Amino acid sequence: MLADHKSDQSHAEGKKAEWQPKIIAFLCNWCSYAGADLAGVSRIQYPPSIRVVRVPCSGRINPYFIIKSLLEGWDGVLVSGCHPGDCHYISGNLVARRRFAILKEMLEFFGIEPDRVNFMWVSAAEGERFSNMVKKVTSAIMKLGPNTQFARKW
Amino acid sequence: MARGNIGEFFLALKDEYDIYAPVRSSGNHVNFKKVSSADEMTLDYLNTTIPPKEIWFPRVETLFEYEIHGQDIKVMPPRVSNERETIIIGIRPCDAASFRLLRKFFDYGTFKDDLFKKHEEKIALIGLKCNEPKKTCFCTSVNGSPHKKEDFDVALTDIADKFVVEAITKKGENILQKLSFLKDASGADLEKAKQSAIKAEQAITAKFDVNKAANIVNDNFYNALWEEISTTCLGCGSCSFLCPTCHCFDVVDENDYANHRGRRIRTWDTCQSTLFTLHTSGHNPRPSQKERCRQRIAHKFCYYPNNYGVIGCVGCGRCIIDCPVNNDVRDIIQKINKIKTTQ
Amino acid sequence: MVTAQEHGHVLESKLRTVASELLKEKKVDLIIGYSKGTIPQRSSPYIARNPADTSNFIWNNLGYTNLAKYLLAKRKKKVDNKEVDLKIGVVAKGCVGRAINQLIVEKQVTRENVVIIGIPCNGMIDLNRIYEAVGTKEILDIALVGDDIVVKGRGFEKKLPFNENINTLCKACKIKTPPITDVLIGESNNLPIDEKFQDVIAFEKMPANEKRDHVQQLLHDCIKCGSCRQACPFCYCKLCFVDQNKPVWFNKTFDMNDILVFHLIRSIHLAGRCVSCGACYGACPIGINLNELTRKLEKLSKARFDYVPGMDLKTPPPMMAFKLDDDQGFILEE
């Protein structure tokens, strides 16, 4: 479970703009992680809301990771891989795409807000695009507020 | 007590007691829930789907909590709210008997389960005798009866417009003293109660002898019967979860790594699951459904009588109604009885 | 038009004859079907090992168990001192037949070892609906009379129209006879698959918090007994995710989230495989309406992948394949 963000929550009361969501980002090593790295090297500013977990391929991502992240209290999940056709392992992201599709449909069926779990394709050259996506996701999740519904209570 | 007095019953007792009563949900499902007024409950039911064992043996219980500070681990007792005195009203004789049976397990010689005893001390049973046993009830075959009152603290008998109320234990007497609206029962009332007792016992159709089953382990442990019975069993565990006397549990640790704390909990478990007896070596002494089905029957009808002197089944029939593949314990016992003694 | 009662009656006698023949000619080692239950509201899965046993087979719209589940156990016999797989006949209604096909595609069952005795199903009675009508009284008899279900108990008798009181899944079912059969009792009553899933689409349009409240209300009584999992022919993992402890995916408490996660992950595992047989719903001792989840899975498979599980032995199921042009409308764009 995420460390108690009691201090975050006292800020949140009345000062919602100051609350920074905690978003876990699963980035594939070859494209998306490199793209995020490029954004960093290019000094592109984006909100410090994501915590990156590097995976070899988006196909490695088990839907359980995403569900467990929500249970542990993460406010949002971001999953990024290579563009279809460009996967370093040829078909990893194609397998993952179907998996993510059904995961997203079932998560939404169970009432998890669609904006909390996001999937995207970012290539190693798309540093600026990566930062724009993170800005977009962060502001969407800030609108939703902290994840209190699905976080496991202690 | 008149039927209409149930409301006053609540008013008199709810400040001092937590009251659990049968509450109707969809279909024919009635379950014991904590209620605060008479409108929420019903005494017009046959038996609950989930047995009341979850009141004295909750589905999840924290054994202890711990915090990790560097190399030190601090173990703390569970954060439980102070339990109030509890009354369970409307419980049937079979379920009340299960309370007594579980006491044998959780309070045996030097083995005393503190958590169970904490619940047990605070519980009083205001039981409702059965006037309409189901076709699947077989309490009379396991030393029970639809009008058995010895396991109650207070016994209620439904005689249509009234209930005959009788204190059985000291705890029961204390409760009745708080109910000022009770009137003395008339001779006619008592006669009606006696008649419904006789009618109820006669209404039980499932009758069989369980004594032969008490020797399963010695006589018929390897009989082909077990293979036959277990072929269609799914190992779902519905029978264990809904059985008032089943009490096997699993102990697991739940960790909150980020905050360096955790707790150890115990939860209901079922011997019908493959993993129940799986050793860390990989060996499983009950590898197939055959062994597991045999275990359940043997535990209730052989091990319990041999160890504790009582039959480990109360004849409520929930396992019969809820088994998805209609494995029927009455059939199984009767098949055991038919095994020729010369093996 | 044959009444519901006649439908079952005719099939029952034909089935017994066919089953007896199969066993006599030793085309199968045993046949799995349904026999009369010891309580009025359930039929019992029954194994016939010789022709005389087949007189116990019945067909009465109370057979909720998906018999394909029993094909997963490795049953062998000894022939000339060698262990050989048993040849098993299954009395298969549409969904059971589709489950068998899907299990063959998933390599859990060998086609040569199973004899599919197809039977045209007209729906299973929804017990929870019957309970709703009857209340807390005990049911002493359920029978089909004409096109009605007649439920009797102590001091009451209720007549409920058959077509309205079968399982929601059966009402929408189009593949009522197995698509592949070795023997067919009677005639196929399959219809073209043209389901629109209005109920699921309407639910999906609700805002997230309303969906969440509805699902929580649906599942809040769940005791996580696992009966739904055990009854499902597609839950055959040697170590279920529930029992994994390296790492622990979700906890064992009855916190709402722990209950939801069980059903969420089980649904995800069944995507593109569930044949909407309703065995999970029939097995649930609490009476939770799992049909809502099943309908969603059915719609997901058809709408997203145009796939109906178990129709043939060649088409790869959606989660065992991918296409370069798969839909990616859910992927975030800038």
From the helix content, strand content and strand pairing of chain C, which structural class follows? alpha/beta
Oligomer: heterotrimer
List SSEs of chain A in N-to-C order: HEHEHEHEH
The fraction of residues in strands of chain C falls at 15-25%
**Tally the helices of chain A: what do you get?**
5
Low-confidence parts of chain C:
none
Distance between the amino and carboxyl termini of chain A: 9 Å
How much of the sequence lies in strands of chain A comes to 5-15%
Rg of chain C (CA only): 21 Å
Sheet with most strands: strand arrangement of chain A: 2-1-3-4
Task: Report mean pLDDT of chain A, rounded to a whole number.
Answer: 89
- Cα separation of the termini of chain C: 58 Å
Low-confidence runs of at least 5 consecutive residues of chain A: 5-12
Radius of gyration of chain A: 15 Å
Q: State the total count of DSSP E strands of chain A.
A: 4
Largest interface: B-C, 48 and 44 residues
Describe the largest sheet of chain C.
5 strands, mixed
Classify the helix fraction of chain C into a percent range: 25-40%
In words, what does this structure look like?
The complex is a heterotrimer of chains A (154), B (343) and C (334). Chain A has helices at residues 6-12, 32-41, 63-72, 92-109, 127-144; strands spanning 23-28, 50-55, 76-81, 117-121. Chain A has 154 residues and is of the alpha/beta class. Chain A has a domain at 30-42 and 53-123 and 136-144. In chain A, helix 2 crosses helix 5. By secondary structure, chain B is an alpha/beta fold. Chain B has helices spanning 6-13, 53-56, 93-106, 114-122, 170-177, 187-203, 216-219, 225-230, 238-242, 289-308, 318-322, 329-338; strands at 17-24, 30-35, 60-69, 72-76, 85-91, 107-108, 111-112, 123-128, 154-159, 162-167, 249-256, 261-268. In chain B, the strands form 3 sheets. Chain B has a 6-stranded mixed beta sheet. A 4-stranded antiparallel beta sheet of chain B has the order 4-3-12-11, with no helix packed on it. Chain B has a two-stranded antiparallel sheet with strand order 6-7. Chain B starts with 5 loop residues before the first helix and ends in a 5-residue tail after the last helix. In chain B, 39% of the residues are buried. Chain C is built from 10 helices and 10 strands. Chains in contact: A-B, A-C, B-C. The interface between A and B is small, with 6 and 5 residues.
